[in-house]
Design a protein that fits this description.
Layout (H helix, E strand, L loop, with lengths): L14 H12 L15 H11 L1 H15 L3 E4 L13 E5 L14 H24 L5 E6 L7 E7 L4 E5 L5 H14 L7 E6 L5 H9 L3 E7 L2 E5 L3
Parallel strand pairs: 5-6, 6-7
Antiparallel strand pairs: 1-2, 2-3, 3-4, 4-5, 7-8
């Protein structure tokens, strides 16, 4: 965190204390209709400052959240949003800090194996791109009103390519990857979309990806990749 334990003074608030203070402040909001917490006279001042500087404070909150995730915010609005909208937030994060999202397709054992393979595949692809002088990063999308983040496995800044990885070439996995990449594409500027796989899938699944303008990147030998282009 930003404040190491050895820097905590006697008045440093723990997480429970922060939660209690946030509840006190919430009851001072003009729209609150319940019983006001006792709190102190500064709670109302905090609310007034927040209402007067909401955009500035929102930007600072996003900056702090990005730092906790290991990166910095890249943009605050989707491509189709106007400056006055409160749209999704897209953050760049290092691949190392970007943990693969688990997903349920088969049994729990299959899920754990696929997640591990996916994470290892992502790291091998990152190293392969590094060897040719390129870099890849992870990205996180924060959607208004949703607590869960959308996690993009890889983003290649050099080619503006969004990449979703899966640890299996099974049909269910590739269909799931296709849905994810099309969802992410709505919020992130890109030139190309791709699915990253540990081997070349059957031609029918490559054709499925091509139908939606999604490339197929697949591993041929350990740490070496080829591509079946959508075009």
């Amino acid at each position: 965190m930003f404040h190491p334990l050895n820097q905590h003074g006697p008045d440093f608030r723990n997480s429970a204390g922060v939660g209690r203070k946030m509840a006190d402040i919430a009851t001072s909001h003009p729209a609150y209709r319940g019983k006001r917490a006792r709190g102190n006279h500064l709670d109302g001042e905090v609310v007034r400052d927040f209402l007067a500087k909401s955009e500035e404070l929102r930007a600072e909150a996003l900056r702090l959240r990005a730092l906790l995730l290991g990166g910095e915010p890249t943009r605050s609005l989707p491509r189709e949003a106007s400056a006055g909208d409160s749209g999704p937030i897209v953050l760049d994060v290092p691949v190392e800090a970007h943990f693969t999202t688990s997903y349920r397709i088969k049994s729990r054992a299959d899920e754990a194996t696929a997640t591990r393979r996916e994470s290892e595949l992502v790291m091998r692809y990152r190293e392969w791109r590094r060897a040719s002088g390129h870099r890849v990063i992870g990205r996180v999308i924060l959607l208004p009103g949703e607590a869960e983040r959308l996690r993009i496995d890889l983003y290649d800044p050099d080619s503006a390519e969004l990449i979703e990885a899966k640890g299996s070439i099974g049909r269910d996995y590739i269909r799931y990857a296709l849905g994810q990449i099309l969802d992410y594409a709505r919020y992130v500027d890109h030139e190309h979309l791709a699915v990253l796989l540990p081997a070349r899938p059957v031609q029918d699944l490559i054709d499925l990806l091509r139908r939606h303008d999604v490339d197929c990147i697949y591993e041929t030998t350990d740490g070496v990749f080829e591509r079946a282009n959508a075009q």
